[in-house]
Amino acid sequence: MNLIDMLSGQDVPVETVCSRKGCRTAATTALLWNNPKIHTPERRKTWLACDEHAQWLEDYLRSRDLWRETRPLSEAASADDGAVAGNVRDAL
């Protein structure tokens, strides 16, 4: 997706690829997190992960006390809380 597509008002599919740096594999998992030092308790940021990197990214977030929840991508995308609003590229 680029700026021209966004400004055109057309629905452009959101790319759901793994957030692990350098990985272009389709995401299957949503990792919900927040940084309590800068985010309100209810705020959730999202990293997407492929099967290969989901555990690694979860471990990284847990080790820093940032992890809040891991969901299958299909479940997270259908949730009403807006947890998956887009993709964060090159998380680590």
Question: How are the elements arranged and paired?
Answer:
Elements: H1 3-7, E1 29-33, E2 45-49, H2 54-63, E3 67-72, H3 73-78
Antiparallel strand pairs: 1-2, 1-3
Description:
- The chain has 92 residues and is an alpha+beta fold.
- The protein has a domain at 15-78.
- It contains three helices and three strands, in the order αββαβα.
- It has helices spanning 3-7, 54-63, 73-78, and strands at residues 29-33, 45-49, 67-72.
- It has a three-stranded antiparallel sheet.
- The longest helix has 10 residues, at 54-63.
- The model has no long low-confidence stretch (mean pLDDT 82).
With strands numbered from the N-terminus, the spatial order across the biggest sheet is 2-1-3
Shape: globular
Roughly what is the average pLDDT, rounded to an integer?
82
Give the helix/strand class: alpha+beta
- Number of distinct beta strands: 3
The profile of the biggest β sheet is: 3 strands, antiparallel
Uncertain ranges = none
State the end-to-end distance. Answer: 21 Å
Quaternary organisation: single chain
Task: State the gist of this model.
The protein is an alpha+beta fold and 92 residues long. It has a domain at 15-78.
